[in-house]
Design goal:
Layout (H helix, E strand, L loop, with lengths): L14 H8 L40 E5 L1 H4 L4 H10 L3 H14 L6 E7 L12 E3 L15 H8 L1
Antiparallel strand pairs: 1-2, 2-3
Amino acid sequence: SRGGQLFQLTEDHSLLNDYLRLGVIGASEVATFPHKNVIVRAVGLSPGLDVDVGQSNVLAEDRFLLCSDGLTDLVDDATIGALLASVDDPEAAARELVSHALNAGGVDNVTALVAHISPLSNQIATEPVQEVKDDAAPVVVDSGESASAADRRSR
C-alpha cells in the first residue's frame, strides 16, 4: 500500500482467476464457482516453471502485504487498506489482519506478512504471522537470510 491505497502486484494462478480474466465467468459468480481452489501454476506441477517478474518503484513508508487467500477471501480490500494505513507496527498490522479473517469465520489457513519500508533505514520488517489449520507445517525463513540460503542449508 502507498498512502493508504492498495495496489495488487501479483495475481493468483488459479482456474477461477483465469476464467475471470478471460470473461468465462463474471464477478457475481465468484462466490459459487465450484473450482475456486484449482491452481494452474505452481512449483512442482510440471518440469518447467513459469515465473512472473515485475518491477516497481519502492518509496519510504510503502507497505507490502504477502498473504494467503485465507485472508483475502474474508477481509475486503477497504478493510485491509485501512488496517495497513492505521496500524504502525508491521507485526501488529499482520496480526490484526489475521484476526479479522479468523473472526469472519476463517476456515482456511490464514497467513499475512507485512513489510514496511522505513524512511530512515529502508529496512524491511519480515515477521510472518499465520494461523495454521490441521497438520500443515509452516516454513519460516529467518529474516536475516534469503529463502535460497535456507534451501541450500536444508539439502
